[in-house]
Amino acid sequence: MRITHGQVDTLPWLDKLPGYDYLPETEFPPQSGRPLAQALMYGGAAIGGTVVLRNSDLGSGGTGPALAVGAGALISGFIMSLKKPAAQPARANLLYNRLLREQLARRNADIARENQTRRQQVRMTVAPVARGTR
Amino acid sequence: MSRFARFAMLLVGLAGRAAAQQRFTVGAQGLYGDYRETEASLKFTGTGFGGSLIFALHKLGADVSYASIKYSPVDSTATSGQEFTAKVFDANVRWRVLGQVSAEVGVTSRKMDPEFAAQGFGAVRIGGRGAINLGPGADLTVRAHYLAGAKFSGGGTASFPIDLGLAFSLGRADGRLRLTGDYEFQSINRKTTSKAPVQQALLRVGGSVSF
Question: pLDDT at position A37, please?
Fold first, then answer.
């Protein structure tokens, strides 16, 4: 007796969903003057605080250290305003990619089930073999 | 595996994770100070050196700093003005309570050498600080403290002594190497039998290394 089985025509796994691509999960926010504005605000607050809180009995002046650090803060803010901002997570893209991954996993699970069924439906052939031809 | 061995492994794992998240920053600074006392003629300026150590873990932060500044009278004709060295020590512990805002307590001490050349001062700091990230590699810090329980070497009281600060750091985005600048302003409305205010403005410029 010779037993053979036919070819199983299974479905291939999917690496990606046709027509749907993953989106970048980080994005660079546009350059802005916000760091400079923040430095200006806090530097100004330090100088203003010094002027308001200093004791008039002790004379004027003495704002040199505040001006120096205020200038340092301002330079930092200016550099950061010109610099390319750090990449931020793109929330919408992260959600989209997660949905895409879930959909892909679901499709591959369906394919696995379908392939299992197909393997069970394979055609078997049982044929008698003449004596001495094994 | 014994219960003790599992517990020891858990402890090692937790300690390893904490060690990975903690950060030490060591800084060295050059200083410029402006110190005034009692009246406009008693004005001193000086320069010196200082060092700092900062520790951060999760929401907890702590710092210790020491500075030595040699002050000279601006008006050399002032009769009571003489050179002195101020040794300034500060230590703070903070806990991040909201976003980048931390509540902070600490101590401050300023000792003078010679002792009675100017007012020695000590107080407990109660206040807060806010950290502002300007971008990758640049940060600002603002702080304000009420100086509670102020004590002076020459006696006297202060009703509302206050300390304001602004600091910036600029350097590598990972924070390992930074150029730092710090401004600290203390206004102390000291009273003895009459008004005897004390005021100090300190500028610290230097660098820091984190690991």
Answer: 92
